[in-house]
Amino acid sequence: QPTRTPLIAGNWKLNNNHLEAIALVQKLAFSLTDADHDTAEVVVLPPFTSLRSVQTLVDGDKLRIGYGAQDISAHDKGAYTGEVSGPMLAKLGCAYALAGHSERREYHHEDDAVVNAKVKAAFAADITPILCLGEGLDVRKAGGQVSHTLAQLDGALKDVTAEQAARLVVAYEPVWAIGTGEVATPEDAQEVCGALRARLAELYSAETAAATRILYGGSVKGDNIAGIMEQADVDGALVGGASLKPEEFVRIARLGR
Ligand code: PEP
């Protein structure tokens, strides 16, 4: 069993201008100790407009906080107004980019083919995609959460090589639990995360599956992170609302301790 370093990633969504971003990262840096950083990898995902400021702060003060983008273009360059490419994000030092967040799927009509193109664009730029998957309430009520989420995984990983897949991060985020205060039980999270890992073993290899970090996302807080992290196939969390509150996010980064 390889050790998978827990990953706690804060998705700020459409919040914080670059000055607020600097203040929030400084607060996190002030509170997080070396022991905390040894326990879990901590990453923030600010809006594009803050990435340069965060890069300057993290590099200048040699902070152990990672950062990345909330989205990535499927294209490297060209006539794609409003988009930001993998090479641009890599140049800003982004280690991660979300791909297929449910809000992108819903409000920007990103389907599995688009998400697949974004995952491949991230790998091509040496950025680790955090591939977001998860079912809506109707699917959950019908008991289809595993088949739905596995189908999204298959679609997003089309033509992704084993070598690339070894660096992938997957985030299982049941849509009904995002921003609602409704948390999946640790057992619900484990059911789908375990199924995702089994599918990665089928698609690639047992080694790849064992090395891939699978996160849970959906109303994660300081109070519920410990139970979620106890699950065998949950390796961290993608945190939305609570990542905007420095004290709460630090508690989550400490895995509830
Ligand atoms: C998210 O947007 O990825 C998320 C998990 O949000 P929240 O923690 O607010 O539910």
Automatic annotation (TrEMBL):
Keywords: Cytoplasm, Gluconeogenesis, Glycolysis, Isomerase. GO terms for cellular component: cytosol. Pfam families: TIM (PF00121). Belongs to the triosephosphate isomerase family. This is Triosephosphate isomerase. GO terms for biological process: gluconeogenesis; glyceraldehyde-3-phosphate biosynthetic process; glycerol catabolic process; glycolytic process. The gene is tpiA. SUPFAM superfamilies: Triosephosphate isomerase (TIM). Homodimer. GO terms for molecular function: triose-phosphate isomerase activity.
